[in-house]
Write a structure and sequence with these properties.
Elements: H1 2-7, H2 9-17, H3 27-59, H4 63-84, H5 98-103, H6 107-117, H7 126-136
Organism: Oreocharis arfaki
GO molecular function: protein serine/threonine phosphatase inhibitor activity
Keywords: Acetylation, Phosphoprotein, Protein phosphatase inhibitor
């Protein structure tokens, strides 16, 4: 307020635009500038803490595995759309659980699970099943994140 009274309306613009106190009049502007710097530093610390907290969530999962999984799931949806000849919204209730497939003992068991899932598809599914089994080879099952003990 003292800076505004001494410097007029223009002092307010400089005061609010520059937390470093590049302009303004009187000693009170300098102390307000320090307060602004402190609050700006506190805001930076809060943003860094928020980023750190967000990082904790993604660290629990392997990002590379998540990316692979997402790409695979998008491919599956696209392929099912072609097999059933419709858009995703119109597709019959077909659920392909990648983790369930990865739990299977061998390729034959995985192929059987997929054939059972796609039993009502009128188009040939052999190529889709073969390609899907190739794509999941080497993938790991995604385990849920570990709960932190308090």
């Amino acid at each position: 307020e003292a800076a505004a009274a001494a410097g007029g309306g223009g002092g307010n613009l400089v005061f609010f635009q520059s937390p470093r106190g590049g302009g303004g009049s009187g000693g009170s502007s300098g102390s307000s500038s320090r307060e602004d710097s402190v609050s700006a530093a506190a805001a930076v610390v809060q943003v860094q803490q928020r980023r750190h907290q967000q990082g904790k969530v993604t660290v629990k999962y392997d990002r590379k595995e998540l990316r692979k999984r997402l790409v695979l799931e998008e491919w599956i949806v696209e392929q099912l759309g072609q097999l059933y000849g419709c858009e995703e919204e119109e597709m019959p209730d077909v659920e392909i659980d990648i983790d369930d497939l990865l739990d299977a003992a061998n390729e034959e068991e995985r192929a059987l699970k997929l054939q059972e899932t796609l039993v009502d598809c009128y188009k040939p599914t052999e190529e889709f099943i073969k390609e899907l089994l190739t794509r999941i080879r080497g993938m790991r099952k995604l385990s849920p994140p570990q709960k932190k003990s308090i």
